[in-house]
Write a structure and sequence with these properties.
Layout (H helix, E strand, L loop, with lengths): L5 H11 L14 H19 L6 E7 L13 E6 L10 E4 L2 E4 L11 E7 L8 H20 L6 H22 L8 H8 L7
Antiparallel strand pairs: 1-5, 2-5, 3-4
Helix pairs in contact: 1-2, 1-3, 2-3, 3-4
Amino acid sequence: MTLTTKLEAINQMLLAIGASPINSLDISNSVDVALAKTTLDNYSRELQSLGWHFNTEHDVPLTRDANKEILLPTNVVKVDINAVNLPSGVNPVQRGSKLYDTANRRYTFDQDLKAEVVYLLDWDLLPEPARNFIAKSAARQFQALRLGDSNVSSELRDDENKARIAFLQFDEDTADYNILTNPDVASVTLRRPPLRQH
């Protein structure tokens, strides 16, 4: 089995509105292709921002720079600071590409921190179940945008629902969620909103 390429995902979306497939993503003069790319990227960002096993890392060291500020990589979409070893009177939150201490109203910290970090991954780094679900959901959204929501085919909705189920099963299988052996599971599960169903 080969992984779904971004070009293949875009072509699924174009076929959903009856448009001809393309041979390259470098086509810049097509409104449909530009809208398809934007729709695909937006749904990928939306899905990944929820945080899944494939794009979440635990106990990530967050090191201060020379100014005692903690700068975050540009692909970080969510940071949850570990409460363990967090000094009292400090409340770090993500503001843009930095951490900010809301308790002391400053961007500087007196020590390095650790956190659970959710990353926004490029298409080529996504696992296949995520690629498939994003492509199917984006195709349905794209068809609704271009043809009107009442014209979305039941076949597209069915494909999206099957891809959603496969993706959720993949996440559950690979994460080995177990509330008995990992107390963090409950908090992660409760923090993540359910995937929208249409």
